[in-house]
Amino acid sequence: xxxxxxxxxxxxVILSFNYIVLADDRNEEVLDSVDSLIEVxxxxxxxxxxxxxxxxxxxxxxxxxxxGKNENKKRKMASTTxxxxxxxVLENSKLDDIVTVSSKAxxxxxxxxxxxxxxxxxxxxxxxxxxxxxGNDAAVALAEHVGGDLTxxxxxxNKKCDxxxxxxxxxxxxxxxDNDDHYTxxxxxxxxxxxxxxxxxxxxxxxxxxxxxxISGRSKNLSNTNELLGNLDGVYGVKxxxxxxxxxxxxxxxxxxxxxxxxxxxxxxxxxxxxxDSIQLIEYAFKNFExxxxxxxxxxxxxxxxxxxxxxxxxxxGISNNIDVILNDLxxxxxxxxxxxxxxxxxxxxxxxxxxxxxxENTAIGYLxxxxxNKNVLSLDIYNSNSIPQKGYSDFWNYMIKNYxxxxxxxxYKNIWYSIDKSQIFCYYY
Length: 430
Description:
Order of helices and strands: HHEEHEHEHHHHHEEEEEHEHEEEEEEEHH
Number of strands: 17
Oligomer: single chain
Radius of gyration: 33 Å
């Protein structure tokens, strides 16, 4: 019996150890050549079928979704968590700050930078350890430095979610090890990533293939775990992830010409699947979508509409009917449109023409919509840029005098010509 108990205890310990080891990027299987996967995915005309449980292709220019699979479903996201960790650290500390590593940070399992208790490391090098080799120990060290402890740092992460108006994301840890209260969606992770990539320092970090850090004077070479960085045209970031609960995850930023995309796959069964899915989605997007100059189309249509309708406005009791119509500013110039629907871009304008004074400046009086293949993809409000006050007593009095005078002049004019008709015209010249 004792032998059996010792045996089962040994098995449990081994399983627990494996769970910890499998708790992030470092234990993933060796991947076949990325080039071979690129060749397989080089000709995609239709939406690809992917293994990943959730995915999204997000256009950074317009914020539109080119492809989605369960993109709004809550899921664990493993080390893609560190995208948010990095941005909170960058916004709340200095790169030259020196962090003394705690025993808690040094003892964190999973993928590691290799920190020891009382090691002294700069925030800069910890961030490289966080984003390149996905160090969970670096994540905890940074969280304690910025937030005091993991709970305090999680509060900062969730406050950032609130500022980004995210409703389906919640953070508990800085590293992303499995926790039922730690989750996001593919869509909201894309929003987080898009925000992070606007930070030049973050963008430089996730685009770095190799880097040497200093840990208490010891040098250590790091390699980026992102298998697409440097291997697929246009890829410039972002982050890998893997836990038993989240499965394989990959967030990729890629830009070609004027199309800038974020591709996310969550919950792939294998590393090969996450890589293949990512490549398929990226190639599908670039081969099947074209960036259309939507600002030019909207501006042309709106100016033509104004030209035809400028005299159609009526402001009851207003001092005038002269409304200066403007369109809400478009935050981008180009919009991705499926190549099959380039000629199916339509613009519709809906605007009131009758108002009652006073009409205040910047009142929404209508809207413009853009439709692609009978699907609304964009809406902009129409405003009046000038105010039109209500007529006062003096305005009504002047109006009456002006119109009465005009009436008299017209009447006199008619009578004179009536007299001319009835008299000898030369008498008026004599």
